[in-house]
Design a protein that fits this description.
2 copies of one chain form a homodimer. In chain A, 30% of the residues lie in helices and 23% in strands. In chain A, the strands form 2 sheets. Chain A has a 7-stranded mixed beta sheet with strand order 3-4-2-1-5-6-7, sandwiched between helices. In chain A, strands 9-8-10-13-12-11 form a 6-stranded mixed beta sheet. In chain A, helix 2 links the parallel strand 5 and strand 6.
């Protein structure tokens, strides 16, 4: 590859795609040429990047000629079809879908955790699940000190995690409620305004959702911890942006709050916000639009040996998706 | 006591007080005479009960003459002062605050769990914390079958749990957001609209909030389980009414989904709503205004031996407060 890249963004008009452009701008990511790809219904839309307008092109088998780097943020079905095409055309694919994450030969990477895993990639690198990424930003620094063995987690996930249509759906339901009416649920199976939905993604045989198993499955792969266990309940909440996660984590070695604070204060990409006496703790509204995650509510867990309870929040469109993807590209 | 009661409601104009009147109406609770008591600022307000209007009187030391039964829903500070006065005037007090819950000689009762504990009361009976009540409605039937030892819980608590002013605060913040503005946070330390707050009640030395320790403390007392442990994160969410709780519970004996379903399906006061394939699970919007709690998302916990994960929702103004208080009165 050259030192400046011919970049394609697949799913450029989606919630993550738009963030990708902003992240590359902010981080001065070296882009020689940009190709914005999306489904035919976005054809002809224009998006700005570094003060220049780019037209959205339809995604086809010929979209990747001359592309060095292709960011995919288009969902699994299209990723399965088009990522191999992009790779075969010579691009390195960084895919935000779940399609390739658990394939043994595809690196799954959070640069703050396992940057070395990008080496030896075969043209496709996977970006982790957004809730998993936010949770691991806090768990991994603690793992390095105390040795993580298992986690109990409950998430509070923003609607932007379901894409731009879900943001509209919440907005419409909220506006209708103010006028005493109701707007239909289309993206979600139930109203999301003034409600919480204990379902993110579809259900598996074991009663968990796909989303709920990702912290265990992807966590094992990225932390190289094959015995790591995670019991998760994923819940959608009427928040526009930024996921939060309540965590009880058990470690193999004795924990202390001081050592935990130390580890978190030094950890890259995350800020310790933990002054309960001043009502300071991570909030989705505080981290929305921010690259860095926040961790707080740190306490010795009262139901686990060697356990810590904590609360993490992060902008899942950034650390959980666009930012992490660009960070992976920077590793290359 | 006679078979029909002279009843006082302290805090009659609050979120719980108003529900108490509705619950007594619905359950045909035998009321000979009703006295509505509140702070001086509610003086002269009128509330309807069984198609008759009652004026709200100011709470004084002389408010309880001739009263058989006094429902307190006025917070701890007033309860500490006035519950003994009411008792000394001959009333049985059913107190919704946390003031007396952990006093050894005060029964703390959920009628579906420990009705026998009301016997031997000394004039004051305590109503449990709302989140605790909702969680235990599902945990106790499982405890009877499998033997509960510990729980990891994260709550999704409605603003009505903070009273009528908090409902207004969410409503104002929502209305302002639709017009592109913002309304101030007064009841809560941060905006609650489009946000979640990992703080309910004040913080303790151990880093948990008071609210978070109630499931363990009150659960031990009501289930007569001195070794029960609960690690809880309590979170306020922008929902008007009904609390939800994500639970991972460990038992002493092996669990099975069939036996768990059976126990929950037969349990009083709670409905099993667990058809994930049809997107059916408990939701705050579904249980709001309902006496019965709902439990679903039942699955074998993937990080606990003898563990079950589940999701419970219940109207905390009803089962968590007013309904439970009237049920206690019915036991007497």
């Amino acid at each position: 590859m050259s030192k400046s890249y011919h970049v394609a963004v697949v799913g450029a008009t989606g919630a993550v795609g738009v963030e990708l452009l902003r992240v590359m701008e902010r981080r001065d990511f070296p882009v020689t040429d940009l190709r914005l790809l999306a489904s035919p219904r976005s054809l002809g839309k224009k998006l700005e990047f570094r003060a220049r307008e780019y037209s959205v092109e339809a995604l086809t088998r010929n979209s990747f000629a001359g592309i060095d780097l292709a960011f995919f943020s288009c969902g699994s079905i299209l990723a399965v079809e088009f990522a191999p095409i992009a790779r075969n055309a010579g691009a390195v694919v960084i895919d935000n879908s779940s399609a390739f994450r658990m394939e043994p030969k595809v690196p799954l990477v959070i640069p703050e955790i396992n940057p070395e895993d990008v080496r030896g990639h075969r043209g496709i690198i996977a970006n982790p699940n957004c809730t998993t990424a936010v949770a691991l930003m806090a768990l991994y620094p603690l793992h390095r000190v105390f040795g993580l063995c298992r986690v109990f987690a409950a998430s509070y996930q923003a609607v932007s995690g379901s894409g731009a249509r879900a943001i509209d759906e919440l907005r419409r339901q909220i506006a209708a409620s103010v006028e005493g009416g109701a707007a239909p649920a289309e993206v979600y199976p139930h109203p999301i305004a003034f409600n919480v939905l204990p379902q993110v993604d579809s259900f598996l045989e074991n009663g968990y959702t796909k989303e709920e198993m990702k912290l265990q499955n992807e966590g094992r792969k990225m932390m190289h911890l094959p015995d790591f266990r995670a019991s998760v309940t994923c819940v959608r909440v009427p928040v526009y942006r930024a996921h939060s996660v309540a965590l009880s984590a058990q470690f193999t070695r004795p924990v202390s709050i001081d050592a935990a604070r130390n580890a978190l204060a030094k950890a890259p990409g995350i800020d310790l916000v933990d002054e309960p006496g001043k009502n300071l703790y991570p909030l989705p509204l505080s981290v929305a639009g921010k690259d860095r995650c926040q961790v707080g509510r740190l306490r010795v867990d009262c139901a686990l040996e060697n356990g810590l309870s904590l609360w993490v929040a992060g902008d899942q469109l950034l650390k959980g998706a666009a930012l992490n993807a660009v960070q992976i590209a920077e590793l290359l």
